[in-house]
Description:
The complex is a heterodimer. By secondary structure, chain A is an alpha+beta fold. Chain A has helices at 9-13, 40-51, 67-73, 137-144, 168-175, 185-192, 227-239, 241-250; strands at 20-25, 28-29, 33-34, 55-60, 79-84, 91-92, 97-106, 126-131, 134-135, 151-155, 180-184, 199-203, 208-209, 212-213, 215-222. Chain A contains eight helices and 15 strands. In chain A, the strands form four sheets. In chain A, strands 5, 6, 7, 8, 9, 10, 11, 12 and 15 form a nine-stranded mixed sheet that branches. The longest helix of chain A is centred in the C-terminal third of the chain and has 13 residues, at 227-239. A five-stranded mixed sheet of chain B has the order 1-32-33-34-35, with no helix packed on it. Chain B has a four-stranded antiparallel sheet with strand order 2-38-37-36, with no helix packed on it. By secondary structure, chain B is mainly beta. The chains are: A alpha+beta, B mainly beta.
Amino acid sequence: MFFRCLSGLLVLACAGTCAVLRVCADPQNLPFSNQAREGLDNRVAEIVANGLDATLEFVWWPERKASVAQFLDAGNCDVWFGAPSGLPSALTTKPYYRSSYVFISRRDRVGSISSLFDERFSSLRIGAQIVGDDYAPPALVLARRGLSANLAGFSLFGPEGEPNPAARIVDAVDTGAVDVAIVWGPVAGYFAKRAKSPLEITSVRPAAFAGIPFAFDITAAVSKNKPSLRAQIDQVLERECPAIRALLAEYSVPLEPEEKTPCASLQP
Amino acid sequence: MLQIFPLEGLAQLFRIFVPFFLAAIAFPQVQNPPDDGQWTMPAKNYASTRYSSLDQVNTGNVAKLRLAWTFSTGLTRGHEAAPLVVNNTMYIVTPWPNLLYALDLTQPGAPVKWTYDPQPSASAQGVACCDVVNRGAAYYNGRIYYNTLDNNTVAVDAATGKQVWKTKLGDINQGESMTMAPIVAKGKVIVGNSGGEFGVRGWLCGLDADTGKIVWRAYTTGPDKDVLIGANFKPFYKADQGKDLGQKTWQGEQWKIGGGSAWSWISYDPDLDLIYYGTANPGPWNADQRPGDNKWTSTLFARRPETGEAIWAYQMNPHDVHDYDGVNENILLDLNINGQTRKVLAHPDRNGRMYIMDRATGEVLSAETFAFVNTTESVDLKTGHLTINPSKTTGFKTVRDICPAAPGGKDWQPSAYSPKTGFIYLPHNNLCMEYQGTQANYIAGTPYVGANVRMYAGPGGNRGEFSAWDPVHAKTVWTVKEMFPAWSGTVVTAGDVVFYGTMDGWFKALNARNGSLLWQFKTGSGIISQPVVYEGPDGKEYVAVLAGVGGWSGAIVAGGLNAQDGTGAVGFLNAMADLPKYTTKGGTLYVFSLP
């Protein structure tokens, strides 16, 4: 349940002194967020709330379908971190990082794989995240290559109470249940650290194929009718760029090259 | 037959004798009990005819119909349920939080007797694909049975509102939810899951009505033992014959995430002792990713209610590429076809075809189109094979003018059959869609690329239709055009009046013989529910319907979605952008009678 239902007044107050910044976050979705506030986006939210001189309040809500409508349009929270740039029906900030889908594999079994056209795929068991109602984007290309039979789907979601459902696909690589897996970069980077086997993580190449992108800019999303809040968050994200870069390193997020050098405006 | 008579007190006596007596007399639909004026299950009876033999309200006087009383559910999401009427009490299940209201029909204004609150998980709201709807409850042996969005089936004492049992059947965390109305047959409460949008594996489940214990679970995909296919499984067509087809018609392990949920209607034939239901579309959505027939998705099944054992199956849409769930209702009829009386089921499918099938064997007798269709050419009655139009298949490409669109020629909105006219009354859609293979999206911290779908009105510009269909001659008799998809169920009576509601909030009565409009009433919100007809304690005939727009089609109003994002609600928003101009949200029951 959303913990509170406030009027838009508090948000307007953010133009000067913002009383509360309400942030929608999933209660059980590491590495991005959890109720113990251990996730990357929990930490980015703290930085932004501090920068806005606002009290941070998390509104816990599983991120499933229609998140924009439930989070932002319904007025249940002001901002939601970790949204892809250009998300329809919301305003997204400038990206605070860019990551990619990666191949993750055991160094002692298949070694490193980076190309979607690697000839070894036809004899490998390939784990792929099930995102929405489709496979992760690189797997779409493998399916087109006639490799559907090699794919094993992993839901983003686990049984009630399971702390890290997103980790299962990385664990499957670790234990050898699959030979290689296609995983969204931040998930792979974070859970690979606890693996028992040495794992290789490489960004999927090419970075896009047949119009399907495998790398995405990640932003904060606000409601369409709050452009001033977006501008304020953009300012904080830029000012706090070094701190956010440090966080990304701490969470082992595989980063992709960006158009502009990160923290460019802060460099001498 | 005995179990569905809701008799108490003095009437207990009749429990023993009445059914035997009735079984002995000739009755046109042998599987149906005589009409006692009550409404004990959403489809009225096991045959799912939604036919009331009450005729107080008829073509001659329906114009005088007026509002008798109303009741607000206090909720604003889509209301899809049919009210039940048993022992002078009306039972209403609401959308999430799935309250059960009991209203006392013996008192003026039908005050609330009690309210049961199952306290479903709040986060279940985020899992439901298409609004947080519920399609209703079923009455059986003194209890009300229904499903909650967070995957519980509950049994509630019909007299006291006390919970008798509650059984958890699925996991919302993994994307499952439950929205369908159970059917209770031979002491088993039969229910299925929703959630094909999240890569779940579909199932149908039989629970012991007394205890809530799970007796059987039949999966839609996987090896025969999981699908409950055994020695008695005799599909009519070769394409459905063979071992472990639920596994072999997929590549690798894809059947484990293959979809095929059972989120809609179940019918029951006590004579043949078979339940009938259809399974939803396969997953993943993008068909390029799942080569093969993808059995047993988009399939009609006949099973034994006590064990779940499959007796026959017919896959209507092998390797579905259009989101054509096979879950629509099956009306069980005895029809004279080519001089022979055939026990048939009538199934208006999402693919726009009305399947008339021998319900004992699974043979297709006809499969003609009731809506505008360009995705398929024909069904070969000898082989059961559906010929599809290759230029309208989806995948990693842009395809325009796919008709019908993903919600089908007709979605879940249940039809009715009148033995007096011999027609099936079909509320349905006239929608086409444009499909683009790629659009960036996001779920649970993970960006992805999904299909970009936009729906719009089909030929003629009207988005909905209400038709009368002749199942013997397999053709439309008359059609009324509707501006919006006709997303409500319907009920037809012995007074030759057929009732349905529109998404802009008109509750209408048509002449069942020719479709002429006899009466209409503007409700406070659009109607996407199932009207019912009953006899009140005062002996008068009443017509009841829940208003409260929402559902997949009405999400733009109930969910407050952004009209600028035409791809919202899986592309339905594009076709419904003007709905907010015509209606607002809010759940209210309307009950009508003659003065």
